[in-house]
Amino acid sequence: MSNTKTKSHATPEHKNIYTSHPSSVDGQISILRQRGMLIDDYAFAKDFLEEVYFHRLLSYSVPFFINGNPQQYQPGTKFSDVVKVYEFDSKLRLLILEAIEKIEISVRTQFINLSWKYGPHFYLDYKLFKDHKLLNDSIERIQYQLKVSRDLLVSEYYHRYHDPEMPPVWIAIELTTIGQLSKWLRNLKQVADKESIARRYKLHFSLLQSILDNLTLIRNYSAHHTRIWNRHFDFECILDEQHDTLEHALCEGSRIYSVLLLMLYVLKTLGIEQPFYQQLVKLIEVYDINIAAMGFPSDWQTNFHVVMNAK
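User: That's the sequence. What structure does it adopt?
Assistant: Structure tokens below.
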């Protein structure tokens, strides 16, 4: 029998009581110095910690700890070194959110195009979807968004019409997220409908499904200001022999590099990959970031150019 103890099995009598008292900003700076961090500009450090809470800073300090020990920084670590990583991560999230917005709008458009075949309210048709519970969840979510929405198109629809109860797909889809679009794609009953959506991106629909699932995860992290630059992710893995570079990104990568490569591919199919790539390269150069911690291989630029030059 194993003697290993886990938190889930711990009983109250075996747990410690948290008694630490919150430290002032001055106290926080003192703690950082005691742990070996160099703080040359005390005023800057104080201003920063008055706006960015201490434990958020610590999450960006991980690469600077000695053997992962948060009580001891590597010799020569400066406060500004950690702030640089923090600022890079912030700008990377903004770049990613901007790119996901373009991808999301494109995917919405492909769903709207199904209305040519099925009519403006096909997103409510149970015959077109496999899982009716999942469809009900989607409808209820949209109904809630319609109630609280101040969108002009929504207001105009209900001002002019009382039937059907819900607006056409090109209005309703404005209230969906990329996560909901991913669920719609998964739930479509007809393979031909999935293929018509994925065809725009020159992908098998199963691979597009994985990309949307992954982008949903990254979008949620980014929108909630969560650190992403060196985080490990649990990505979906779908094999596609026609897209070797993407397969590598999906199946062997668990860092943000994989996501960036996948996004670049989709942006390439939309003809808008260059601004994204140029801004990414500039960010890496300006902040001189450790891209290995992001999962970047030594030949990352070759991989990116393979994607951008693909036909």
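The CA atoms of residues 236 and 255 lie 12 Å apart.
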